[in-house]
Amino acid sequence: MRKHSLQEWTLLVDKLRPLYYAVAGGLAVGVYSPERATQDLDLVIITRSLVEKRLLELGYTKVGELSIGGSTWRLPDGREIDVIDISDKAWAEEALQEASKTIFHDFPILPLPYLILMKLESSRMQDIADIGRMLKYADRSQRQRIRSIVASYRPQDLEDYEQILLLGDLES
Q1: How far apart are CA 14 and CA 21, in angstroms?
Q2: Distance CA 120, CA 117 (A)
Q3: Strand order in the sheet with 80-85
Q4: Terminus-to-terminus CA distance in the chain, angstroms?
Q5: Ramachandran assignment for 38, one of left (phi > 0), alpha (psi -120 to 50 degrees), beta (any other)
Q6: 167: which DSSP letter?
Q7: Which of these CATH numbers, 3.30.200.20, 3.20.20.70, 3.30.365.10, 3.30.460.40, describes 6-171?
Q8: 9-24: per-residue pLDDT in tens?
Q9: Type and span of the H or E element at 62
Q10: Which helix (H) or strand (E) holds 95?
């Protein structure tokens, strides 16, 4: 499979408006650090039924459910979208409101602190690597804001955040 860039998804942007969503995953990581290869588009949403209805109208086929909450969808050309339902997160509304002001190539991008929060919760190896990569490019005030948000919403992950930050700084 080949890597897809945000530009290839621009037609979808207009068709998803005015639904409430933000780009997350590998494409969002590429906004905060050097781009990495990814083959799908990850959208975080809080209105799952509306987004899924729109995807059906656009000709997407539901592939299956995600273990983290949400579903995977495929276009006829083979591109896939993971629709991640964050409606159960205390920070969801705040993150999506802020994402509406964090625009990249016409896409609302999940703000860095919330992207890191999601990746800390997931804790897959790729997610930990993504956190380290993004923190390497975050300035002091961004790092402090991330620390504050992690402390507020996932205090159990604060030590992990600090360790990833320390290890990333040692690599530099």
Answers
A1: 12
A2: 5
A3: 21-24, 40-45, 80-85, 70-74, 61-65
A4: 32
A5: beta
A6: H
A7: 3.30.460.40
A8: 666 766 777 778 898 9
A9: strand 61-65
A10: helix 92-99
